[in-house]
Structure formats: structure tokens, C-alpha cells
Amino acid sequence: MARAAVISAILDHPSLVQVEFNTIVSEHHHLLWGRMGIPVNGGTLALISLTVVGSMDEINQLTGRLGALPHVSVKAAVSTAEIDIHPMHGREVI
């Protein structure tokens, strides 16, 4: 069973960490259902929202890896409801 979550990240000085941030997100692409990024203050700050579905371990691993990066602040909001997803497609079973 999986849970849905929204991971919010704030990148101070994104040019210093965006390559590593994007690499980590790409390594967890199987969890990713949506992504939105907004540059702020002429690009000196970036606000990023990731919509993910996965096990608590997977969500925590992604959040922890992103939060360990310098200049990155991360918080996650995780659903209390469990979701039954198709193991091959990673999408909700109807």
C-alpha cells in the first residue's frame, strides 16, 4: 500500500544545488506524479512542489535526501489514507 504526499522544497541560491536536486528527484521518478517549480526574486530563490505516491519509506528517503542538500529546506505533507496502486504502472487501480 502507498500514500500520497506533497513535498515542498525551498532552494536558497538554486544555481548552487539545482543539478544535485534534480538528480535526486530523477532517481525517484517512479514516485513522481507532478512537479511545479517557481523562481522567486530574480532566480535567487526557487519554490518547488513535488506530488508523489509511494511507501512511507520511499517518501521519507526522498524527503531526507533532498533535505540533506545545502541551501535546501524541505517539508512533506503525507496522506493518512492508503492507496492501492498498480505495481507496474504506479497509478491508482480503478
How is this structure best described in words?
The protein has 94 residues and is of the alpha+beta class. The protein has a single domain, classed as 2-Layer Sandwich (Alpha-Beta Plaits), CATH 3.30.70.1150. The protein is built from 2 helices and 4 strands; from the N terminus they run βαββαβ. It has helices at residues 14-27, 56-67; strands at residues 3-12, 32-40, 45-54, 72-78. The protein has a 4-stranded antiparallel β-sheet with strand order 2-3-1-4, with helices on one face. Strand 2 and strand 3 form a beta hairpin. It is elongated. The mean pLDDT is 91.
User: Low-confidence spans: pLDDT under 50, at least 5 residues?
Assistant: none
- CATH homologous superfamily, by name? ACT-like. Chain A, domain 2
Structural class from helices and strands? alpha+beta
Number of strands: 4
Q: Estimate the helix proportion, in percent.
A: 25-40%
Strand neighbour order, sheet with most strands: 2-3-1-4
- Provide the residue-averaged pLDDT: 91
- The first-level CATH class name: Alpha Beta
Question: SSE order, as H and E?
Answer: EHEEHE
Total helical elements:
2
Q: What's the shape?
A: elongated
CATH topology term: Alpha-Beta Plaits
Strand content: 35-45%
End-to-end separation: 15 Å
User: How many domains, in number, for the residues?
Assistant: 1
- Characterize the main sheet: 4 strands, antiparallel
Radius of gyration: 14 Å
User: Any idea what the CATH architecture is?
Assistant: 2-Layer Sandwich
